[in-house]
């Protein structure tokens, strides 16, 4: 074709760093602790609900309502209404989307205009930047800064904080939205009430929207509480709260997500939705509706999946945190999510010249080396940073611990072999 083929909005977005690492991991005999999905089944009640949706009422093979299967929007409204301290209307305040990815995309397309600035807190779930750019916006980055630890003491994601003055300096008259991800991927940070209050104050002061990505809200550890920023005074009116059934019920392939928010914002998301996706698969929505109905009955009890899953994942986190240290990786204690990051600075000092292009951030070279030589797959943390900040954070790698016992044991075996190679 002689005409320019790709739309200009795709400029600079073709390269996806994930593909390289996923492809490389397939070439070697590896234990995959890279991508964030469970390799164990969803809970029985959720699987049974899906099976019933497929084999029961044949009309569930057909379209449902554009903005969500009615029993699902109803249960999401009542379930999250209580948590957010709002009376939610299933039609006005809830939109069901193709996963949380779909929710984010719909939000960016609906709200971010040509030249609008969007504040993104680093390290960030990598799609926020391209989604801002595709909408014509300008990402403005601000990093969480780790505070120094005592010698020998493990770092914690709670030590990674925003500098209030720096954060305030990022707000301008062009700022349209701030993206907040708590619990955070990849760091596992759970924002404290005081931190959320700081963000909330600035959003209100500068009349800025908050896109709150809370897909890991049930995955918080050590007795911590997840707080939705939309529940803070004055924030409901300017916040979109995004969730994912994939993360909630360990069923990432179902691709059911949702957005909750005030009608004056949601109506614009509905416009995008009805002119793009129109509606999401009915049967997976049925299964998610039934699963939430079940969870509502078991809320807070030991039988609740939202109680059981974090307990099991905290055990996995502890197992992985302990095992990684055996070879000199230094895990940063994760407070939430599926992930933890580990500090590889000692390797950077001991073997600085790993193969790879000189300008390639160290963590990427290290992960390639680890896949090839140690059979372990992780994700370099620099890909969760904007290009100018990548060099400052190229000494961390991300591990995913939402894995079954056999995978954790296979990881241990690889680490034991690595340790033996290190010698006494
Ligand atoms: C922070 C964050 N937001 C959103 C998503 C996307 O969720 P979904 O699979 O429901 O599209 C992910 C998936 O990894 C994530 O980590």
From TrEMBL:
It comes from Ictidomys tridecemlineatus (Thirteen-lined ground squirrel). This is Kynurenine--oxoglutarate transaminase 1. Catalyzes the irreversible transamination of the L-tryptophan metabolite L-kynurenine to form kynurenic acid (KA), an intermediate in the tryptophan catabolic pathway which is also a broad spectrum antagonist of the three ionotropic excitatory amino acid receptors among others. Metabolizes the cysteine conjugates of certain halogenated alkenes and alkanes to form reactive metabolites. Catalyzes the beta-elimination of S-conjugates and Se-conjugates of L-(seleno)cysteine, resulting in the cleavage of the C-S or C-Se bond. Coiled coil: none annotated. Its cofactor is pyridoxal 5'-phosphate. Its main location: cytoplasm. Signal peptide: none annotated. It catalyses: 3-phenylpyruvate + L-glutamine = 2-oxoglutaramate + L-phenylalanine; an S-substituted L-cysteine + H2O = a thiol + pyruvate + NH4(+); L-kynurenine + 2-oxoglutarate = kynurenate + L-glutamate + H2O. One of its GO terms (molecular function) is cysteine-S-conjugate beta-lyase activity. Belongs to the class-I pyridoxal-phosphate-dependent aminotransferase family. One of its GO terms (cellular component) is mitochondrion. Keywords: Aminotransferase, Cytoplasm, Lyase, Pyridoxal phosphate, Transferase. It is found in: Cytoplasm, Cytosol. The keyword Cytoplasm applies. Residues 30-408 form the Aminotransferase class I/classII large domain. Pfam families: Aminotran_1_2 (PF00155). The keyword Ribonucleoprotein does not apply. It comes from the Eukaryota. Homodimer. SUPFAM superfamilies: PLP-dependent transferases. One of its GO terms (biological process) is response to bacterium. InterPro entries: Aminotransferase_I/II_large (IPR004839), Kynurenine-oxoglutarate_AT (IPR051326), PyrdxlP-dep_Trfase (IPR015424), PyrdxlP-dep_Trfase_major (IPR015421), PyrdxlP-dep_Trfase_small (IPR015422). Its EC number is 2.6.1.64, 2.6.1.7, 4.4.1.13. Pathway: Amino-acid degradation; L-kynurenine degradation; kynurenate from L-kynurenine: step 1/2.
């Amino acid at each position: 074709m002689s005409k320019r083929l790709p739309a200009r909005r795709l400029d600079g977005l073709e390269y996806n760093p994930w593909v390289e690492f996923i492809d490389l991991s397939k070439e070697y005999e590896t234990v995959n602790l890279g991508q964030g999905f469970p390799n164990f089944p969803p809970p029985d009640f959720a699987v049974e609900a899906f099976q019933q949706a497929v084999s029961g009422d044949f009309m569930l093979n057909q379209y449902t309502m554009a903005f969500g299967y009615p029993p699902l929007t109803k249960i999401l409204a009542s379930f999250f209404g209580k948590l957010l301290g709002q009376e939610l209307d299933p039609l006005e305040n809830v939109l069901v989307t193709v996963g949380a990815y779909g929710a984010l995309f719909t939000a960016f397309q609906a709200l971010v205009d040509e030249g609008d600035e969007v504040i993104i807190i680093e390290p960030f779930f990598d799609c926020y930047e391209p989604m801002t750019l595709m909408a014509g916006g300008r990402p403005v980055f601000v990093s969480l800064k780790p505070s120094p630890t005592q010698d020998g003491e493990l770092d914690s994601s709670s030590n990674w904080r925003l500098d209030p003055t720096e954060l305030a300096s990022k707000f301008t008259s062009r700022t349209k939205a701030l993206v907040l991800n708590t619990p955070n991927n990849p760091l596992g940070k759970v924002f404290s009430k005081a931190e959320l209050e700081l963000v909330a104050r600035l959003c209100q002061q500068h009349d800025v929207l908050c896109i709150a990505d809370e897909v890991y809200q049930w995955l918080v550890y050590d007795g911590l509480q997840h707080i939705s920023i939309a529940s803070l005074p004055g924030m409901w009116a300017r916040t979109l709260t995004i969730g994912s059934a994939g993360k909630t019920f360990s069923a990432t392939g179902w691709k059911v997500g949702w957005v909750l928010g005030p009608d004056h914002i949601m109506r614009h998301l509905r416009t995008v939705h009805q002119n793009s996706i129109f509606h999401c698969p009915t049967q997976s929505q049925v299964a998610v509706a039934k699963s939430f109905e079940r969870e509502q009955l078991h809320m807070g009890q030991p039988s609740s999946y939202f109680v059981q899953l974090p307990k099991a994942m905290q055990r996995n986190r502890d197992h992985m945190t302990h095992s990684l240290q055996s070879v000199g990786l230094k895990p940063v204690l994760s407070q939430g999510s599926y992930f933890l990051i580990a500090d590889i600075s000692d390797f950077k000092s001991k073997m600085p010249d790993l193969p790879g292009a000189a300008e390639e951030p160290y963590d990427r070279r290290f992960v390639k080396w680890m896949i090839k030589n140690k059979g372990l797959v992780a994700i370099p943390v620099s890909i969760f940073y904007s290009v100018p900040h990548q060099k400052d954070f190229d000494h961390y790698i991300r591990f995913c611990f939402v894995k079954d016992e056999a995978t954790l044991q296979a990881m241990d075996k690889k680490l034991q072999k690595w340790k033996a190679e290190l010698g006494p």
